[in-house]
Amino acid sequence: MNGPIASRRQLLVGLSAGAAIPVLAACGSSPAEARSFPISLSEAEWRKRLTKDEYRILREAGTERPYSSPLNSEKRSGTFVCAGCGNELYSSRTKYDSKTGWPSFWAAIDKGAVGTSTDYKIGYPRTEVHCADCGGHLGHIFSDGPKPTGQRHCINGLALDFRPA
After folding, report:
1. Predicted TM-score (pTM) of this structure
2. Which domains are present in the chain?
3. Given 82, 131, 134, 154, which residue is catalytic?
4. Could you give the CA distance from residue 165 to residue 113 in angstroms, rounded to a whole number?
5. How far apart are CA 135 and CA 40, in angstroms?
6. pLDDT tens digits along 135-150
């Protein structure tokens, strides 16, 4: 009788461990945070440089409320840069209204402007996008955007500053 009970116990432990993997993955640092970047500041320096809300978004991978950013309705010609380090990220030419409540772009300004990593924070994988220079969290990339890329870079407005042309 010990054999079948031990087998069921092992099965339950195995299933529990498998279910815990996404939860544990969400607790760890994202790959963007683990890498080194050209611009590297201490947490104290980041806190001094950024507002409380910018810090929460860029350094703690937070999300702003939808429709709360004035950049969502920004229509002038110019460049969107990282609010943490000033790296040029997106051109106004690739911005569009995704009707999601966040500034959205169908492509970064160039291939080296942003980086990506896999984010498991809500239990399933999403493509996180971060600044290639400082590693600051910008938002996520989804595959429901317009042509020519089919991508939607869904970006927190607090992660960006706008520089008019």
Report:
1. 0.79
2. 2-164 (2.170.150.20)
3. 154
4. 18
5. 9
6. 999 999 999 999 999 9
